[in-house]
């Protein structure tokens, strides 16, 4: 019995010692889109029938499955009727955490005509996976048929799914009956039809399990990991089946969310939590139905993307590939949503401070004071096959954290957070200063063998190119990162005065002025009248025309003349495609409209640029960018902005071209909606001085009315209304009034 593994009174053997019957899989004869569900640290991707086929051979659908904390706990979930795929009638994942599918039977020999049996599937996530299947005979005669539900779990790491090579994997296990221990060549699976367990032992010794409990009507028998029901239904009779899947690691629940017992309880728990959250956020609505649908979807997705880390929640970056904590993404999306829910920024600051770099570790690119890039929990991270425990290979998360720290305080006057994180802010600034000591610029150069080659927001391997399309070499100083450092120095110098550290305030002000002078000298391209993407390892400009300089427009680092030149260039046809501003000019030899960072359009990139255009007083231009992004979003499924889309020109009736594997939902794409709304009404909060400035609010032609309720500035809650007047002109003028105020905040409207 050397191959038998005993774990807390249960017995397992390697899968190759206990072959199980295979239940054939079926595939539709056409490529199907997918449905995505998300709940905290759990997400599910199925086809539009709610299935995860056992016939997955195409890499494009290899991401299907149930994932929790970077492990796939379900790689097959396939409903069949008499060994065939049902006929889809309708399906929707509108709720985000639950999906509903209506389907029917195909023709079954001469016994049952097609579309006689109504099949309704409801699937929900809440700390586990829950499904109920309702079968109804809409025929006039009694019928009998076989229904099967096939499961499997490969327990692969998410990085494995993404194509990272592994030299070795753990062992798929089969649970066996204890009374078959003495039969070395005839181990038996448990045949209890009320439950089913799939298991895996990782290279680190961890036991992973997907445990299924059947409910309502139990299967008539199990064939391997396929549950089979022999159904008999009288005319218009209904029967209900169901199960609950719980994910375990070393006998403990994997998810941070406590799983209830039933689907009804799971849906109720989700709805209660969402209602509580919605009651606390700012309510933003317009008179335009399409805009409201976009806003409501963005609100819903921000709720879905919140993920628990200890007692706090931050926004995970996006489903499927980035459903975890990312420093840069979490910070930017938290800043975008300050107008919606400042608590997201507070928790983001605290969690990232908790993991702030403490030692020098080349494998993880950790350094004292540095803010992390990415946190992972799967087997490959636990076994040190990847450095994400966490991984610190990001150049911009640290200055961005400082910017959020200052901006959050401006919105909230939260002295508790200011004081608790002051030492973290000092450590972050010291890391920046150490890095800049050699050249005067904040630069990156990969240290870890399995780290990222590029460590700005454009982090794919082919994106830092010069005007000839040639890749830049050496340590890279990105233009927008220097803008972030400048803004961080300016904003932190103001906070240093509050902390009675005038020495730091004076030093950081001087650092900022010196950086501004160097930046406008070294990054400017006189022949192009534009800003370089970066400086390479030799200090030479990387002189391609990209969207990156647009991030600097709102930060104050450019001289006014250079800022205007960048602003005008960003809207030229080679960059602005009608839907948004491309990441790279279509005149570049490296341009590819389908390239991840070399010609595609990113909503969050555009929202930062629009904010910058607005800060320069270029209101019409900022609104044009915003309206392009909103128009693109109106074409998307569920009116949900994707992570990115292709850079093809907006012409005639052509819809925006989708990027094949864009994350959706994605945090800073959803956050874009709120940043663009904020840009339109132009709020400038200063909670420490107890006032809010509203400067030249401007609604686009498609919106005549916008309201905010329960907006929080410091300790004051207020309601605002914006009304567009002179609507016969393109822009018109926008009036603002305060309709309710609970607190003593001074509101100054400057028009």
TrEMBL record:
Mannosylglycerate hydrolase MGH1-like glycoside hydrolase domain segment(s): 331-635
InterPro entries: 6-hairpin_glycosidase_sf, 6hp_glycosidase-like_sf, GDE_N_bis, MGH1-like_GH
Domain Putative glycogen debranching enzyme N-terminal: 37-244
Name of a matching Pfam family: GDE_N_bis
Protein name in UniProt: Amylo-alpha-1,6-glucosidase
């Amino acid at each position: 019995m050397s191959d038998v593994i005993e774990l807390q009174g249960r017995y397992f053997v390697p899968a190759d010692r206990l072959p199980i019957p295979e239940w054939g899989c079926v595939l539709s004869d056409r490529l199907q889109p997918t449905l995505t569900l998300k709940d905290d640290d759990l997400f599910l991707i199925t086809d539009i029938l709610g299935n995860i086929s056992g016939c997955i051979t195409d890499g494009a659908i290899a991401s299907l499955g149930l994932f929790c904390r970077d492990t796939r706990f379900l790689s097959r979930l396939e409903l069949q009727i008499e060994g065939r795929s049902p006929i889809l009638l309708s399906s929707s994942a509108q709720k985000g955490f639950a999906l509903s599918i209506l389907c029917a039977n195909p023709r079954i020999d001469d016994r049952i005509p097609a579309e006689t049996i109504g099949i309704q599937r409801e699937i929900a996530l809440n700390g586990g996976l829950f499904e109920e299947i309702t079968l109804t005979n809409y025929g006039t005669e009694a019928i009998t048929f076989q229904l099967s539900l096939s499961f499997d779990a490969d327990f692969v790491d998410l990085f494995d799914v993404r194509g990272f090579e592994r030299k070795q994997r753990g062992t798929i296990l089969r649970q066996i009956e204890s009374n078959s221990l003495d039969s070395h060549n005839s181990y038996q699976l448990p045949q209890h039809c009320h439950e089913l367990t799939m298991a895996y032992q990782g290279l680190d010794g961890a036991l992973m399990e997907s445990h299924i409990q059947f409910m309502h009507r139990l299967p008539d028998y199990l064939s391997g990991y396929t549950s089979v029901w022999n159904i008999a239904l009288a005319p218009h009779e209904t029967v209900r089946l169901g199960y609950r899947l719980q994910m375990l690691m070393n006998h403990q629940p994997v998810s941070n969310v406590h799983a209830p017992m039933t689907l009804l309880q799971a849906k109720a728990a989700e709805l209660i939590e969402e209602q509580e959250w919605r009651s606390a956020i700012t309510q933003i609505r317009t008179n335009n139905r399409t805009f409201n649908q976009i806003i409501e979807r963005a609100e819903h997705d921000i709720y879905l993307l919140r993920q628990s880390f200890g007692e706090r929640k931050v926004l995970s970056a996006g489903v499927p590939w980035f459903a975890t904590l990312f420093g840069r993404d979490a910070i930017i999306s938290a800043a975008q949503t300050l107008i919606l829910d400042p608590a997201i920024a507070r928790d983001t600051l605290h969690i990232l401070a908790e993991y702030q770099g403490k030692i020098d570790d080349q494998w993880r690119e950790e350094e004292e004071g540095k803010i992390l890039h990415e946190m992972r929990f799967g087997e490959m991270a636990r076994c040190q096959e990847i450095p994400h425990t966490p991984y610190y290979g990001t150049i911009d998360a640290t200055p961005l954290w400082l910017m959020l720290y200052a901006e959050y305080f401006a919105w909230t006057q939260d002295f508790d957070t200011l004081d608790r994180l002051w030492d973290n802010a000092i450590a972050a600034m010291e890391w920046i200063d150490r890095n800049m000591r050699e050249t005067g610029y904040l630069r990156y150069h990969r240290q870890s063998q399995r780290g990222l080659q590029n460590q700005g927001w454009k982090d794919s391997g082919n994106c830092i190119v010069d005007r000839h399309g040639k890749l830049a070499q050496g340590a890279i100083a990105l233009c927008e990162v220097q803008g972030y450092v400048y803004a961080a120095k300016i904003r932190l110098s103001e906070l240093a005065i509050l902390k009675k550290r005038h020495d730091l305030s004076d030093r950081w002000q001087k650092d900022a002025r010196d950086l501004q002078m160097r930046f406008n000298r070294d990054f400017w391209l006189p022949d192009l009248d534009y800003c370089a993407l970066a400086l390479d390892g030799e200090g030479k400009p990387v002189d391609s025309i990209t969207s990156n300089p647009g991030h600097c427009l709102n930060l104050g680092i450019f001289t006014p003349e250079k800022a205007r030149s960048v602003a005008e260039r960003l809207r030229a046809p080679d960059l602005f495609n009608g839907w948004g501003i491309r990441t790279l000019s279509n005149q570049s030899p490296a341009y590819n409209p389908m390239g991840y960072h070399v010609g595609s359009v990113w909503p969050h990139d555009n929202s930062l640029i629009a904010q910058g255009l607005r800060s320069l007083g270029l209101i019409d231009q900022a609104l044009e960018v915003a309206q392009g992004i909103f128009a693109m979003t109106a074409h998307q499924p569920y009116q949900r902005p994707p992570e990115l889309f292709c850079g093809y020109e907006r012409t005639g009736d052509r819809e925006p071209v989708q990027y094949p594997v864009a994350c959706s939902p994605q945090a800073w794409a959803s956050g874009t909606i709120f940043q663009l709304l904020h840009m339109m009404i132009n709020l400038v909060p200063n909670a420490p001085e107890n006032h809010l400035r509203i400067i030249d609010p401007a609604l686009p032609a498609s919106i005549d009315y916008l309201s905010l309720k329960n907006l929080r500035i410091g300790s004051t809650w207020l309601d605002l209304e914006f009304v567009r007047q002179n609507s016969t002109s393109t822009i018109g003028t926008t009036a603002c009034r305060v309709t309710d105020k609970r607190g003593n905040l001074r509101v100054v409207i400057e028009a």
